[in-house]
Amino acid sequence: MQIIKNIGLVLLIAGYIFAGINHFRHPGGYLKIMPPYLPYPQALNFLAGFFEVAFALLMIFPQTRHLAAWGIILMLMAFMPVHIYMIQNAPMKMGNLVVGPLMAWARVPLQALLIAWAWWYTK
């Protein structure tokens, strides 16, 4: 089981680093899915990218892993308004990708899985 947990950790770290950097490389896609009632969308997008990378890097070290895992959980919970907005406005075009209603709805249980994955490293 420890081997699976270690592989999961590497994948989690790589995934959040990639996702975080993507906020800086392609901000337009993220800005399109941000609910209009959220203030300062560009700043929120950059903060999301910063924290995704920061938490991923903190996951590398056993001393900071617990804190980083909880940070990821809170961050994923903070992202829920975006996913609800996507459901309400599907289909939405994000670059070359069209997010239809099914894909928008699938993001909600995916968030729960991502939260559970991060929670695995809180112990």
Structural summary, described in words:
There is one protein chain. The protein has 123 residues and is mostly helical. The protein has one domain. The chain contains six helices and two strands; from the N terminus they run αααααββα. A two-stranded antiparallel sheet has the order 1-2. Strand 1 and strand 2 form a beta hairpin. Helix 3 packs antiparallel against helix 4. The chain starts with a helix and ends with a helix. The mean pLDDT is 95.
Quick summary:
The protein has one domain (2-119). It is 77% helix and 5% strand.
| Content of β-strand | under 5%
Instruction: Indicate the structural class.
Output: mainly alpha
**Shape, please?**
globular
Number of strands: 2
Bin the helical content.
Answer: over 70%
- Distance between the first and last residues' Cα: 14 Å
Radius of gyration: 15 Å
Number of domains: 1
- Spell the H/E element sequence: HHHHHEEH
| Low-pLDDT residue spans | none
Numbering strands along the chain, what is their spatial order in the largest sheet? 1-2
The pLDDT mean sits at: 95
Biggest sheet overview: 2 strands, antiparallel
Tally of helical segments: 6
